[in-house]
Amino acid sequence: MSYTAKIGPSILNSDLACLGSECIQMLDCGADYLHLDVMDGHFVPNITFGHPVVECLRKQLGQGPFFDMHMMVSRPEQWVKPMAAAGANQYTFHLEATVNAGALIKDIRENGMKVGLAIKPGTTVEELGPWAGQIDMALVMTVEPGFGGQKFMEDMMPKVNWLRTQFPSLDIEVDGGVGPDTIHKCAEAGANMIVSGSAIMKSDDPRSVINLLRNVCVEAIQKRSLDR
Ligand SMILES: O=C(CO)[C@@H](O)[C@H](O)COP(=O)(O)O
Ligand SMILES: [Fe+2]
């Protein structure tokens, strides 16, 4: 068991006019990484930002913070090089958005980034399975991608459980509606990379929320290791 609990705030619902300082606040509050949601208005019915913003963030924040790019875009192949040049660390693309996941995985690696592979709620985890040995992280969406602040879909947990059983060392991320009320389900199922947007951003005490999410995850990881 080589994975650890990591909390990645999603800055989608933050004040995007102050993106840099919002990210710095999250890191100061103990975030392990930043989950940056890229939407193209085509793969999802919303638009956010692209690699020029990521480049500015990297300049402002320095080399330290880990940027997990959640690419909710129709042609993920198109943005690999620009995102790598902008300073992205991990390129998480959607399985539904490509016809050649193998070539894309190779390209992401050749451009020096880690590989994340995401599935929407309607995609079965068995479709992701064949790629799991070639990626760094699997992202199980727990809402329909496109917007922050939606209700957590508990019926996605069997996917997480299946992945944890089949791939004991894989980083498994959950994203959508995750906060203090839903973290236990995610942690018990085996998720270790926790994306949380509104629950952290809207809290008066983001540090406590981040700590709570991490503690629940750490406990679940310890319990799983004792049960083995
Ligand atoms: O990718 C997405 C939405 O498509 C997420 O990263 C959300 O932005 C997370 O926000 P909450 O659901 O936690 O508010
Ligand atoms: Fe996301």
Strand order of the largest sheet: 1-8-7-6-5-4-3-2
Q: Structural class, please?
A: alpha/beta
The amount of helix comes to: 25-40%
How many DSSP-defined strands? 8
Q: Give the integer mean of the pLDDT values.
A: 97
Largest sheet: 8 strands, parallel
Ligands = 5-O-phosphono-D-xylulose, fe (ii) ion
Rounded to an integer in angstroms, the radius of gyration calculated over CA atoms is: 16 Å
The rounded distance between the terminal residues' Cα atoms is 10 Å
Count every helix, treating DSSP H or I runs of 4 or more residues as helices.
Answer: 9
Order of helix and strand elements from N to C terminus: EHEHEHEHEHEHEHEHH
| Envelope shape | globular
Low-confidence stretches: none
| β-strand amount | 15-25%
List strands and helices in order, with pairings.
Blueprint: E1 6-9, H1 19-28, E2 34-39, H2 51-61, E3 67-72, H3 80-86, E4 90-94, H4 101-110, E5 114-119, H5 125-128, E6 137-141, H6 157-166, E7 171-175, H7 183-189, E8 193-196, H8 198-201, H9 206-227
Parallel strand pairs: 1-8, 2-3, 3-4, 4-5, 5-6, 6-7, 7-8
Helix pairs in contact: 1-2, 2-3, 6-7, 7-9
The structure holds 5-O-phosphono-D-xylulose and fe (ii) ion.
Structure in words:
The structure is a single chain. The chain has 228 residues and is α/β, with parallel strands linked by helices. The longest helix is centred in the last third of the chain and has 22 residues. Bound molecules: 5-O-phosphono-D-xylulose (5SP) and fe (ii) ion.
